[in-house]
Write a structure and sequence with these properties.
Helix content is about 40%, strand content about 20%. The protein has helices at about 1-25, 45-55, 70-75, 90-100, 130-135, 155-160, 175-185, 205-210, 230-235, 255-265, 265-275, and strands at about 30-40, 60-65, 85, 110-120, 130, 145, 170-175, 190-195, 215, 220, 225, 240-250, 280. Strand 10 (about 220) and strand 11 (about 225) form a beta hairpin.
Length: about 290
Amino acid sequence: MKSSRFFLLAFFSVLIINCSKKVESKVSYNKGEMTILTDESFKSVTEALAEGYMISYPDTKIKVVTKKEDLGFLDLLNNKARIVVMSKVLSSEEIKAYEDKVDMKMEPAKFAADAVVFFVPKNSEKESITMEEITSGLQSDDKNFVFDGTNSSNLNFVAQKLNKLPKDLKFSIIPGSVNVIEELSKYPNKIGVIGLNTISRPYDKEAEKLRGMIKILPVISAGKTYSPDFGGLREMKYPFTRVLYFLTNEGSFNIANGFIRYSCTHLGQKIVQKEGLQPYNIYPREVQIR
C-alpha cells in the first residue's frame, strides 16, 4: 500500500514538472508568435528587422501591423500589444501613464535615426525650404503642407519640433505616405511631408520609383542648409531628425525583449543601415594612418 502511494506521488510529481516545462517552453525569446505595432512611416525598417529575427530564430513568427503612433501607444498601455515602435518624445503625463499601467520604468530602446522630410514634385522649381516657411506655412489658411494623416507620427513630430499641438497646425491630408507622393503633382504649390523610411531603401524598386517622382527639400535653419542624409542624421543636425525606439510591456526576457536586443545588436543595426537609415548604436569610424 505504501509502495503504491509512493509510485502515485512520484507519478504526479513528474507530471507537474513536465507540465511546468511545457508552460515555460511557450515563453521564450526564440519561440512563439508576436505582433509589433508601428506607424506606417516606420513599417519598412520594422518589417526588415522582423524578417531578420525570424531568419535567426525560425520558430518565431512576427507580424507587423500598422497603426497610428498614438493609438499604438494606447494599445500597449491597455495590454492589447506587447511592443510598439515610437518616435515622439513622450510627455511627463504619458510616461507616468506607462509606468503606472505597465508597472515598469520606461526605458526606450533606441535603434535608428529617421527623419521627417519635405518634398515637392520632381519638376518643381523649388530647391529648398526655410524653417520660417515651415512655421508660417503651418499657420496659414492656405494649408499648403500635405501630411499622410491625423495622429500620424509625421504630424506629431513636426508639431512637437515647433512647440505646437497638432490641432493648432493648419494642413491638408492625403491618407497614406505613398498616396501623398503619387498625388502631390495634382496640387500646385503644395509641399508633401512624409517619413524618410518610406523612400529610404536604396535597392528597393518601389522606393526607387517613389524617389524618382519627388525632390526632397533641404531645410535652411539659421542661414545653414541641412539635408536628411547619413551625415545630417548621424550628427542630428538636420532639424527634423528623429530617433526611433521600441517600447514593450514585457517584464521578462521573452520574444519582445529578444527582438529588441536583436535590433540593437550589430546584426540588427546593419539591417537598419541597409534600410537607408542611420543606425543608432553603430557609427562608421574613419581611421587615419600616418
